[in-house]
Amino acid sequence: MNHDQTVTAPDDTSATIERALATRDLPTITAELAPLTASDAIGVLERLGAKQRALVYRLLPKDRALEVFEGLDPTLQGDLVQALRDEEVASVFAELDPDDRVSLLDELPAAVATRLLHDLPPAERHLTAAVLGYPAGSIGRRMSPEYVSTRPELTAGQSLERLRARLDDAETVYTLPVVDARRRLVGIVSLRDLMTAAPETPVAEILRAPHSAQATEDAETAARRCADMRLLALPVVDAETRLVGILTVDDALWILEEAESEDQARIGGSEPLRRPYLSTPVRSVVRSRVVWLLVLAIGATLTVQVLEVFEETLEQMVVLSLFIPLLIGTGGNTGNQAATTLTRALALDDVRPRDVLRVLAREVRVGLSLGAILGSVGFLLASWAYGTPIGTVIGLTLLSICTMAATVGGAMPLIARIVRVDPAVFSNPFITTFVDATGLLVYFFIAQAVLGL
């Protein structure tokens, strides 16, 4: 799979092409596209609407069109497939790697996907169907079935000959899985080891113990392991340790980038767009945000109800209302900091769900420390402006809210993982709503106790 990690196009080129599209000046577009690299062309296409993108893609030089198509997000590939002519689509689709085909098929209507699969050569159809057979979200769905393997009894020279014969269709040549007669994974050998060993050296003498992933394993987990271990390729095996594919490091990094984008979107209270921003229809942007906004708006009614319950307290001491934005904002920020830190730690496998009690203990101490610092400042400023009793209420409330928010914010991602829910979903939006309501309860209870209301 070939994905450009940094996709940019010169601003003047993009602007020129967009102006030429407005006047249907095709010669100018063709001239501007000719000197662009594949990554620059991708940057241009990502800024265009679906119809404009199909037109510009048709004007790309033939030798660069496939490379550009491979570098696009699967959602944009799907848009192009539905806009191009059947013969153009069949030509590009047949040239894709099997794992790239599967990502594209997931974005297409069933009828279109079936037709494309039917038009593939039998060998390519078999490889693609093998990847399609694994559950969505598993590493089997993202692996490449096009690999070069060797056998323990073969020599280094024979293995290099096998490699040379498959150079054109192999996903990677830098790491070779070693399998036995039943195709079970027994080791790996690097291209460097094969080239430095004497040609008659048996592979069994230079192979290393393999790291592998189960084909049904979560794709992000397997990709994280591949990246953490700095592996160029991670073999993927079935339940009987038979080799079924490989995950290359560039595919692993692409999976992790997708997961990071998804987490960041959900932490911010929206759904991931799954395509470049400028190429996303406005209705899709609205749809990605509106559900969360409705959920948060409903959750915010808890805060309104708390204020209604303590309406008489506010009438007796109106000055208390001045500090409500400060207190709920501080509590929400404290909880969000803890949740973001723990969500990231979970993604990096720094902590596990079984560490929930250790995390609670740490976050209680962190929250107390933060609360003591902010509470002291709040006490001094509020006492100077409104008197010591109000300062005491504000200081104690900040101490309590910071401790509670840090504890809840740290625990919620772990609890979410335990109940098999995306930790990002339980991060900032829900924690902010929870801390706002409970923080106000704490505030008014402290005010009643200290001020005798």
Features:
Magnesium transporter MgtE; CBS-domain; mainly alpha; MgtE N-terminal fold; single chain; 5 strands; 3 domains; Tetracycline Repressor, domain 2; 453 residues; two-stranded antiparallel ribbon
Topology diagram in text:
Elements: H1 11-23, H2 26-33, H3 38-45, H4 50-58, H5 62-71, H6 74-83, H7 86-95, H8 98-105, H9 110-118, H10 122-132, H11 156-165, E1 175-179, E2 185-190, H12 191-196, H13 203-206, E3 213-214, H14 219-228, E4 233-237, E5 243-248, H15 249-267, H16 282-309, H17 311-316, H18 324-347, H19 356-386, H20 388-418, H21 428-451
Domain count: the total is: 3
Apparent shape: globular
Rg on CA atoms, Å: 29 Å
The share of residues in extended strands comes to 5-15%
Name of the top-level CATH class of the largest domain: Mainly Alpha
Summarize the biggest pleated sheet: 3 strands, mixed
What is the ordering of alpha helices and beta strands? HHHHHHHHHHHEEHHEHEEHHHHHHH
User: Reading side by side through the largest sheet, how are the strands ordered?
Assistant: 3-4-5
Based on secondary structure, the structural category is mainly alpha
Tally of strands: 5
Task: Provide the CATH architecture of the largest domain.
Answer: Orthogonal Bundle
Helix content: 55-70%
Tally of separate helices: 21
> CATH-wise, what's the superfamily of the largest domain?
SLC41 divalent cation transporters, integral membrane domain
- Poorly predicted regions are 4-9
What is the distance, rounded to the nearest whole angstrom, between the alpha carbons of the first and last residues?
67 Å
